[in-house]
Amino acid sequence: MTSADRAANSDERVRLDKWLWAARFYRTRSLAAQAIDTGQVRVSGERVKAAHAVRAGTRISVRRQALTWTIDVIAVADRRGNATEAAALYCETEDSAALREKTLAAQKAARARVLAQPAGRPTKRDRRRLEDFLNEP
Fold this sequence. Notes:
Blueprint: H1 3-8, E1 14-15, H2 16-22, H3 29-37, E2 41-43, E3 46-47, E4 53-54, E5 59-64, E6 67-73, H4 83-87, E7 90-92, H5 94-116, H6 124-135
Antiparallel strand pairs: 1-4, 2-3, 2-5, 5-6, 6-7
């Protein structure tokens, strides 16, 4: 059954943890179930159990570390396929994609600032510059 066939059959349902695994948000179903239990995955803004039935048209919010995906389910699948098939199961909202890109850019900038700082003790030249700066009126 292709993803187009799944989308046509909107009555089809699948467990939330199975769908997250099939859509490749988590490597295993147990990791998906653990994320659902800890509240990192919400369906229509509410906490649900791993056995919650997902069907086409459901809005899911997935939070992993500092990133959040808000997605609309297009099709359901209970088997894990390749990445192309997994990407056909959902559509990310524009607001979510923009916010995620902004967060990634901020993280990259913060990482660059940390790497730009010198490591270790200041040199004699650095200490003299600091003393000159602090002693200025």
